[in-house]
Amino acid sequence: MDISSYLAVGGWFIQVIFDKYLSYQLRRWAANCGIEHELDRLRVALLRTQSLLHGAELVPTLSYSSLPWMRELRDVMYHAEDLLDKLEYNRLHHEMEESSANESSSSPISAFMLSRFHNQGTPSSLEPCWDRSTRVKNKMVNLLERIDQVTNGVSEVVSLPRNIRSRNHIMTSSIPHGKLIGREFEAQQLVTALISSQVEIPVSVVSIVGVGGIGKTALAQHVYSNARITENFDVRMWICVTCLLDELRITKEMLESASSSRFRHGGITNFNRLQAALKARLASKRFLLVLDDVWNNDNRTIAIEQENWQKLLAPLKDGANGSKILLTTRSSIVAEMLQSSYIISLETLQVNDCWSLVKTSVFDETEHTINSKLENIGRKIAETLSGLPLAAKVVAGHLKCKHSVDEWKQVLQRNAVWEEIMPILRTSYDNLSPHLKQCFAYCSIFPKNWEFEAEQLILLWLAQGFVHPDGCRRLEDIGKEYINDLRNKSFFTIQKKEFVSYYVIPPVIYELAKSVAAEECFRIGDDEWTRIPSSVRHLSVHLDSLSALDDTIPYKNLRTLIFLPSRTVAPINVSIPPVALNNIRSLRVLDLSLCMMDRLPDSISNCVHLRYLNISSTTIVTVPEFLCKLYHLQVLNLSGCRLGKLPSRMNNLVNLRHLTAANQIISAITDIGRLKYLQRLPTFKVTRERTQSIVQLGYLLELQGSLQIRNLENIDAPNEAKEAMLCKKHQLSVLQLMWASDRDEVNGNREEDVLEALQPHENLKRLDIVGWMGVKSPNWLENEWLSNLELIFLSGCNAWEQLPPLGQLPSIRIIWLQRLKMLRQIGPEAYGSGSQMETFQSLEELVLDDMPELNEWLWSDQTMRNLQNVVIKDCNKLKALPPVPPNLTEITIAGKGYWVPYHHDVKSARRSSVSSLCIFNCPLLLARLSAQMNTEIIARFRSLRSIITDQMTILRCSLLEDRLELIESLDIQDCSEITSFSADDDDILLQLKSLRSLCISGCNTLRSLPSTLSSVQSLDKLVLWNCPALESLTEEPLPLSVRKIEVALCHPLLKERLIKEYGVDWPKIAHIPWIEIDGEIL
Question: Which residues form the NB-ARC domain (predicted)?
Answer without folding.
Answer: 190-366
